[in-house]
Amino acid sequence: MKWGIRLVLAAAANGVLLMIAAVLFDKFRLSFTGWLIGTVLFTVFTMLLRGVMASAARKYASSATFLGGLVLTWVGLVLTDIFTARKNFDLEGAGTWLFTTLIVWVGTIIYDQVDDRLIDAVHGRAKGGAGGAAST
Question: DSSP assignment of 17-44, as one string?
Fold first, then answer.
């Protein structure tokens, strides 16, 4: 159940971050369909790639964590760009790629700081709502 909550919250955060980047950069074209598809693909790609990054982080410690996060974000965006129709999701130009990667990466770091608390709150509310009423 926690994995499902984590997936939904990550998708929501990624959707917001992609929208922010698209608003900030003229060379990032994002339609509503592209936003939906891009959010789903980016979330799935980055969640799958996190396992690889976590393994590298254990091996190479903190330098891999910092660099790995940036690479993970960039690879997630590249894969999303490749697998989404250009008319719906398209990043162009080195500056757009660089700053979009940085914005999404920083947003992900911020999200990761509150991720566990949000999941515990959602999970606790779902459990506590039914159990809390019975125990009072």
Answer: HHHHHHHH-TTEEE-HHHHHHHHHHHHH
pLDDT tens for residues 83-98? 999 999 999 999 999 9
Long-range contacts of 42-50, Cβ-Cβ distance < 8 Å, separation of 24 or more: 42/14, 42/18, 42/76, 42/77, 42/79, 42/80, 43/7, 43/10, 43/11, 43/14, 45/75, 45/76, 45/79, 45/80, 46/10, 46/14, 46/72, 46/73, 46/76, 46/108, 47/7, 47/10, 49/75, 49/76
pTM, 2 dp: 0.71
| CA–CA distances in Å: residue 23 to residues 40, 73, 92 | 19, 18, 14
9 φ, ψ to 5°? -65, -40
The pLDDT, as a whole number, for residue 22 is 95
What tokens appear for 18 in the block?
């992609």
- Taking 50 as the pLDDT cut, the residues of the chain under it are 131-136
Instruction: With CA atoms as reference, report the closest residue to 73 among 40, 49, 39, 38.
Output: 49
- What was the pLDDT predicted at 128? 63
